[in-house]
Amino acid sequence: MKLPMPSNPIHALCLKLGAWAVGMFVFALWIMPPMYDVFCEITGLNGKTGGRYEASEIQQIDTSRTINVQFVAINNDKMPWQFVPQTRSVRVHPGEQVQIDYRVHNPTGKDMIAQAIPSLVPYNAVNYFHKTECFCFEQQPLKAGESANMPLLFIVDQDIPQGVHTITLSYTIFDVTDRYAADQLLGAR
Amino acid sequence: MAHGPAKGISRWLFTTNHKDIGSMYLWFSFAMFLVGGLFALVVRAELFEPGMQIVDPNFFNQMTTMHGLIMVFGAIMPAFVGLANWMLPMMIGAPDMALPRMNNWSFWILPFAFFMLLSTLFMEGGGPNFGWTFYAPLSTTFAPPSVTFFIFSVHIMGISSIMGAINIIATILNMRAPGMTLMKMPLFVWTWLITAYLLIAVMPVLAGVVTMMLMDIHFGTSFFDAAGGGDPVLFQHIFWFFGHPEVYIMILPAFGIVSAIIPTFARKPLFGYSSMVYATASIAFLSFIVWAHHMFTVGMPIAGELFFMYATMLIAVPTGVKVFNWVATMFKGAMTFETPMLFAIGFVVLFTIGGLSGLMLAIAPADFQYHDTYFVVAHFHYVLVPGALFSIIAAVYYWLPKWSGRMYSEILGKTHFWVAFVGLNLTFFPMHFAGLAGMPRRIPDYHMMFANWNMISSVGAFLFAGAQLLFLYIIVTTIIKGRKATDRVWENSEGLEWTVPSPAPYHTFSTPPEVK
Ligand code: HEM
Ligand SMILES: [Cu+2]
User: Fold this and answer.
1) Among A113, A118, A115, A116, which Cα is nearest to A131's?
2) How far is the centre of ligand 2, averaged over its atoms, from the C-alpha of B465 (Å)?
3) pTM for this predicted structure
4) H or E, element range at B328
């Protein structure tokens, strides 16, 4: 489709330049962030692990290799919960499914909701670390003084690059009480 | 024809005359320069000695932040736009800018933007305190409530810049006198043309990134909030995708000014005109693919570090071409050292120092040590103060006789140069050493071991500030009672702007000049 252009060449040029400017704004706001996410997803660069993994084909367990998986817990900002992995590190064979737990305790006097965000290094292991079950897929509500065990089930892919011997998975726990309508989540249980 | 300016305040409010608007831009940027300078003096006064003396840390942070924002967006950028308004039509033989009414708008929304920005200092929680780079989440989750006003003022500045840039491109591409081909344009016109394209490309990105902040703060999105699935590193990528071209927006017009002044006082044509044009264009192009050299330490893979390291170093090549050409222009020239020439030579020498420290920072493994130290502060002040700012001052001395019809006092001008020269080197050179020794930037208090360097810096800063008050005095006295300037002003000045009388009449080139 050809848009009618003003006959004055100056106005036509300005219209074109203005369209460029608007285009760059759209690019920054609606194209750059998704592009960044896709780029990071493909390369694993920002350490964000993928969503729930469906173990479609039964993975062969590769007993010839052992990978050391370490677990880290971090509290964001002033998040008051106690948040610790029950296992500091496990040695796993690629292909085998392993479960570990994180323990959380809400020591405060109020009901709260938390969200754990994973981050994994090295980046070239990110796409070979599959979580079949993870507490990070959902928010974790805890009433005042409550505790809970939060499970993580994972499989390290057999195709993980040869150079990777250690994987460090870190979770940062955020207070998202204000973000989610607290009564809804807490009341539903 | 020949109707003069309107009388009284309405002349300035409703003017569509490029010279009036240029003057307003220049006076406005000078006012902002003094305000930003005042903030810098608060910072330097606090840093005069270790320990907390004068201001509390939060106010200190507001001062560093506001100093950076005001200088970049309020002083340097509008000053270049003011020079463009004054000079571009006269240099290409056009009667005015292409869109005079839009020109009026682009200027008059600026004072509102900066009024809003400055007023945040008096709001509850204070003004922006997160650095001129306003990294999220400092500027979102942890920002003072006034951040919303900061965001809107950035929006307005952005709109002003984009309108100005569109106007400049339209003027250059459509309003040239017959015979003024692209490759005959003075380099100031060329560099501004390329700068204007940079502005159109990246100011919307700046607007985009502050809009995302606005949405994160008020509308519950999480572009930069990890808890909601966002990523704070994304902020840095988008900011620097704007930010690196932005630093070239602040230096390309300076290249044009220096390329106008050096040939005049070396009495030789500019060496390598076309290579200057191509160097400018390649710098502009490269500026889009080096942004992550500001982010070497965020945790990039080695391939990324290497790419951005080599791409950054590549920019030094066209930059080197320019420095070479300026030196070659002076080589065996019949040089005289009037004030504009002093500032131009100061530019070439000191900007090169800034370029070299930039190269040191571009070495990715070394940057892990230098990043966020005073070494970076030294680097960008060497490219911005004796770089961008000196070029603006040189331009004012060079063209003020044409604007006002009066000559400044050469003795006072030279005094201004030497005091500023000594002052700025005293201020910024020691910062290299403080930075290499590990002094972090943006801190109100510091270890005893940095005390000497900081004391020298602070003394230099006050000296430099004094020189700028002298500058104000020189401009005012020149306009009021300077001796009359000739039309040509300088012995060997070339270009259409020197063919009109001094002071330049309210309307010039109503009939296009003949360009051979
Ligand atoms: C040879 C050319 C240049 C090179 C190689 C270069 C390189 C760099 C690098 C690597 C950094 C990041 C340092 C760090 O944060 O660790 C930097 C920072 C900076 N550069 Fe340059 N630069 C060059 C020219 C310029 C010019 C011409 C300007 C402006 C007129 C400029 C303005 C800045 C600013 C403002 C910063 C600091 C931003 C901040 O963090 O606040 N640079 N430069
Ligand atoms: Cu840069």
Assistant:
1) A118
2) 27
3) 0.91
4) helix B302-330
Determine the residue of chain B that is closest to A32 in CA distance.
B238
Q: How many CB pairs under 8 A join A and B?
A: 89
Tokens of A173: 């726990």
Atom of ligand 1 nearest to the CA of B371: 16
Work out the average pLDDT over B191-220.
96
CB-based contact A36 B237, cutoff 8 Å: yes
Q: Residue B319 above 50 pLDDT?
A: yes
| Cβ atoms A166, A67 nearer than 8 A | yes
Q: Which domains does chain B have, with CATH numbers?
A: 22-216 (1.20.210.10), 251-507 (1.20.210.10)
Nearest-angstrom CA–CA distance, A112 and A116: 13
Mean pLDDT of B216-226: 89
Q: Which of A13, A25, A115 sits opposite B204 (nearest CB)?
A: A25
ipTM for this model = 0.90
> What percent of chain B is modeled with pLDDT above 70?
99
* Closest CA–CA distance from residue A174 to any residue of chain B (Å): 6
What separation in angstroms does the CA of B2 have from each of B19, B164, B508? 15, 26, 10
Q: What does residue B261 show for φ and ψ, rounded to 5 degrees?
A: -80, -45
What is the rounded distance in angstroms from the CA atom of residue B195 to the CA atom of residue B165?
Answer: 8
Domain boundaries, chain A: 1-43, 67-187
Structure tokens at B102: 């839009």
| Average pLDDT of span A45-71 | 78
CA-to-CA distance for B306 and B301, rounded, in angstroms?
A: 9
Contact B169 A46 (CB under 8 A): no
Q: Which pLDDT score, from 0 to 100, does residue B31 have?
A: 98
Tell me how crowded residue B357 is: count the other CB atoms within 10 A of its CB: 21
Question: Is there an atom of ligand 1 within 6 Å of B133 CB?
Answer: yes
Structure confidence at residue B396 (pLDDT): 98
* A67-187: CATH architecture: Sandwich (2.60)
Quick check: B66 and B37 in contact, CB under 8 A?
Answer: no
What confidence tier does B7 reach under pLDDT thresholds 50, 70, 90? confident
One-character DSSP codes across B61-92:
HHHHHHHHHIIIIIIIHHHHHHHHHHHHHHHH
Instruction: Report CB contact under 8 Å: A10, B98.
Output: yes
Contact B151, B462 (CB under 8 A): no
Q: Rounded to the nearest 5°, which phi and psi values hold at A166?
A: -130, 135
Nearest in space to B473 (alpha carbons), one of B392, B408, B387, B395? B408
Closest atom of ligand 1 relative to the B312 alpha carbon: 5
DSSP output for B333-387: ------HHHHHHHHHHHHHHHHHHHHHHHHSHHHHHHHTTBHHHHHHHHHHIIII
Residue B295 in this model has a pLDDT that exceeds 90: yes
